[in-house]
Design goal:
Strand content: 15-25%
Low-confidence stretches: none
CATH architecture: 3-Layer(aba) Sandwich
CATH superfamily: SMI1/KNR4-like
Shape: globular
Number of domains: 1
CATH topology: SMI1/KNR4-like
Largest sheet: 5 strands, antiparallel
Helix content: 40-55%
CATH class: Alpha Beta
Distance between the termini: 36 Å
Number of helices: 8
Strand order of the largest sheet: 3-4-5-6-7
Length: 210
């Protein structure tokens, strides 16, 4: 996990530096700063806006904070997510659609702060039936939101507390309104996010070379 997070950090900073100038105004971090201004991760986000950051993560989460989150949510957090928390209790991806992975103290059911979005998504799914519709209709409100408010759009990373893969790993789902990407563990999500950052950076750098 340490190596993966170091790779994530390198890729996220490279993507940030390669992003167009207009993306640097708030780096997609303003919604998180407005929602959680007193969070330690918000302090890091403010430093990002000044360019004064070399590590986009946080100190590890304490065992007590992880246990408190599990008690609050009524679930056992999956092993690979706990491994992430043992390295960094939250993480920033400045300029990305999903720009924050929340500290464990801030994760909560998606419906707590996004009931309107969940309702809108259900309405769209009712109008355009898909094979994922029953799955989404049943789980949207109760899925655990692991990412912060998106910089733009409606992109979120969520943990499905009802679907378990081998190794006691909950399904991790990245939602883009009516599109979803399913991952068998939080590590699998991080690997996918890393690949996405590398591809985006290569695309942006190719554009500047023309």
């Amino acid at each position: 996990m340490d190596e993966l997070m170091q790779a994530m950090n390198t890729a996220a900073i490279a993507h940030w530096r390669a992003s167009p100038a207009e993306a640097h105004v708030d780096l997609g971090l303003s919604p998180f700063l407005a929602t959680h201004p007193d969070s330690a991760l918000a302090d890091l986000a403010r430093r990002c806006l000044s360019g004064d950051v070399v590590w986009l993560g946080m100190p590890p989460a304490s065992k007590a904070s992880i246990l408190a989150a599990e008690a609050r949510l009524g679930i056992s957090l999956p092993p690979s997510y706990k491994q992430f928390l043992s390295v960094s209790n939250g993480f920033l991806m400045p300029g990305n659609y999903i720009s924050t992975l929340l500290p464990v103290e801030l994760i909560q059911p998606f419906g707590n702060e996004n009931a309107t979005i969940a309702s809108d998504w259900r309405s769209m799914l009712e109008e355009e039936a898909s094979e994922d519709e029953p799955w989404l209709m049943a789980r949207l409100g109760d899925a655990i939101q692991l990412s912060g408010p998106p910089g733009k759009g409606e992109d979120f990373v969520m943990l499905d507390p009802t679907f378990m893969h081998p190794g006691e790993e909950n399904e991790i789902v990245t939602y883009w309104t009516q599109l979803q990407e399913h991952h068998s563990s939080f590590v699998a999500y991080l690997e996918s996010a890393l690949a996405g950052l590398l591809n985006l950076t290569a695309f942006l750098q190719k554009g500047t070379d023309r």
